[in-house]
Design a protein that fits this description.
Two copies of one chain form a homodimer.
Chain A: E1 2-10, H1 27-39, E2 46-47, E3 56-66, H2 76-81, E4 88-96, E5 106-116, E6 130-131, H3 138-145, E7 150-153, E8 168-179, E9 182-189, H4 196-209, H5 214-223, E10 238-245
Parallel strand pairs in A: 3-10, 5-6
Antiparallel strand pairs in A: 1-3, 1-4, 2-3, 5-9, 5-10, 7-8, 8-9
Helix pairs in contact in A: 3-4
């Protein structure tokens, strides 16, 4: 059995998220259905990031085992796309070592959050961006973000129902930058807690609006209590941008 | 009564087109409903281009009369957006001379058609692009397009049910160019016949695939018969890009 790794992209708008659920349309469900039609048996699939309802991916990574030997791994994504709906598509593929696991082997996940301060959100991108009703300071947002760098207990930025007991994660990068009409936050970490990116995004925007100082972020982080976080940013602005390995 | 001109954008995916119909969701219907809520009476709206079902607009122009004097015309679009659904938004606005009419005053409409030859269409833009299963020659497409420049009877490129008796239109520009992963056709004319852009787009792609010579386009144009056209390109790749006046 060959181990195949694929990079996939999806528009999260019409999905209940990555993970298969008892009812409702999920990305994992669509990918498994397409693989089942190709293999004529159930094929298990792992993903690097279990994105929530409405969250998009430009570079999600998945892996699975295949016994279809006639298909070179580099053409696998093309064959799979003909079975996938248009809101999930595989972008590239390769064969990987048997030990490779999309989730456990990942060393870094990179997410982007997109806002706009425009008075009108262009309809073509309305599901990929959140509108801000004030003009944020990118310089202040970058100052506010700095205390989050490094390894920390991020309990403040996840709901109490987060299943991991150990809530230490290492943030490698967090940067705000303008891009066309957008304000983008790019955040990279070894791994993220449930809803962590949206909680950080929403809290930093709230603190920027209040013209807060970075010490305020330090205090909220140190509280290790979700009540210290601001409102979470909506799902629609969030994109799983890339996953790194090794 | 002031005459207000607005530039609007929409995602045509969930619309039956611009023009109000007996049943079904239309862009004009949504704009009129929003204006009616603002004015508490019916407000008639004209548009430069009556786009079909599934066709998008980045720069459609509309006009209407208003008696709301408290609102500067330059802020009109902001007020209207709060009544519009997210798939139609006004981008800018101004007050215009009483003689201005969005449709009859327009001197040039500019459309763009987007294709990709990628094996996977990124899900985020799937409604804005048509996938080609071969790699087109941009140089040949530009040669094939040249005979269409200038004033011609474009009967070949419109269904027989087109209502205008005079089917002469003047094409000012038609150019194919690469843009990122896209192949774009930009076409500008004083006005277009019904489905003319999609018919030209589909025919030129067909002829490029056949490695045809420009004389073939001349012959098809001269036939003045829709049977001489190739298959029309799908609605989803077409965008009303801009409208010029005066």
């Amino acid at each position: 059995m060959r181990n195949v790794r694929l990079t996939i992209a999806y528009d999260g708008t019409d999905f209940l998220g990555w993970q298969v659920q008892a009812r409702g349309r999920t990305v994992q469900g669509e990918v498994m259905r397409a693989l089942e039609r190709m293999h004529r048996r159930e094929v298990k699939v792992s993903a690097a990031g279990r994105t929530d309802a409405g969250v998009h991916a430009d570079g999600q990574v998945i892996n699975f085992r295949t016994d279809i030997d006639s298909l070179p791994a580099a053409r696998y994504h093309v064959a799979l796309n003909s079975y996938l709906p248009r809101d999930v598509q595989a972008l590239s593929g390769c064969e990987v070592d048997d030990r490779f696991h999309a989730r456990y082997s990942a060393t870094r996940r990179v997410y982007r959050y997109y806002w706009t301060a425009s008075l009108a959100v262009p309809p073509a991108i309305r599901h990929r961006v959140t509108r801000l009703k004030y003009r944020p300071s990118i310089a202040r947002l970058n100052q506010l973000a700095r205390p989050l760098l490094g390894p920390h207990d991020f309990s403040t930025f996840t709901p109490p129902s987060e299943p991991s007991e150990n809530r230490v994660r290492e943030v490698h990068q967090i940067v705000f930058y303008p891009s066309g009409r957008f304000i983008v936050m790019q955040i990279a970490a070894n791994a993220f807690l449930w809803r962590m990116v949206r909680s950080i995004a929403g809290t930093l925007i709230e603190l920027d609006k209040l013209a807060a100082e970075p010490v305020e972020v330090e205090e909220r982080l140190a509280a290790c209590d979700h009540a210290a976080a601001g409102p979470s940013a909506p799902a629609a602005g969030l994109v799983l941008h890339r996953v790194d390995y090794g």
